[in-house]
Amino acid sequence: MPVGGDFDLDGAIRKVPDFPKQGILFYDITSILTSPQAFGYCIDQAQAFCLEARANALAAVEARGFLFAAPLAARLQLPLLLVRKKGKLPGETYRASFTLEYGQDEIEVHKADVKKGQRILLVDDLIATGGTIKAAADLFTAAGVTVTGIFAVVGLSFLSYEKVLEGYEVRTLIQYHGE
Amino acid sequence: MPVGGDFDLDGAIRKVPDFPKQGILFYDITSILTSPQAFGYCIDQAQAFCLEARANALAAVEARGFLFAAPLAARLQLPLLLVRKKGKLPGETYRASFTLEYGQDEIEVHKADVKKGQRILLVDDLIATGGTIKAAADLFTAAGVTVTGIFAVVGLSFLSYEKVLEGYEVRTLIQYHGE
Q: Which of A128, A164, B62, B101 has its CA 20 to 30 A from that of B160?
């Protein structure tokens, strides 16, 4: 059973069985985007958390995180930093590697974008194991700025990301507790 | 020499030589995102074009197109459709292949998101040869909806995308006429 707020966000999230592989139920947020009401609800909630966390900059995790962070950045007129997979950012970068189910992956952030005194709200669409967002949060922390909150629309609680992200302030709008 | 509007957008675009390979000058729009003034200007201009084109839906090209389309969708409360690389969208899709400098690539759009009567504004960050956005525009046209405009922040005119996109209404905020 999903646990969410007063808006029927669960009804706006398409569930696709056996994607990307057999036995996995995929929570698809693209169906939120085609509903201006659902999308607006998510941005409003992200904004409330951003203000609570007194963030003065946003960081978006590639690629679906862009969809929720960019409207918030535009609305609140805050700088938006990108967290991208290795090789996508053209400038000098900070890098962090992290472990996936099979193998390793690497994320990068432009060094020039990270500035002293930033209080960063990290934004993604969905937190599963929390591996990527933990790597991003730790990267910013190591670079000397504060990660004041982590926001995602969906949290897959049954994958125990809360434990992985211990020490960070995490807000998700809906949590799924089983497949 | 760049040709743009009254705002100094050129000053907000980082130029990175030899990326992604030797001899290529990369126009980096991530430096727009860290300037709320520059980012706001781009969204305002996209909004003006969207209203002119009387679009009632937006489509964003992965991944940097998400950054400009999502704020516009949120602001105008329009449905946002994603144009993604092969294998990223979980539902049933329309597909189109197109030719890259070396080899072929494929884009997809969720079938369920394409609805009769849509007047779509296609959004990307930068148009180079125009190959990807042409494939997306033709995909929507073939699916029976109208592509009422194509918007990008940057147009690399020296790569002759205007010719490739002939027949579509194209708006870019700044054009570069040589490297």
A: B62
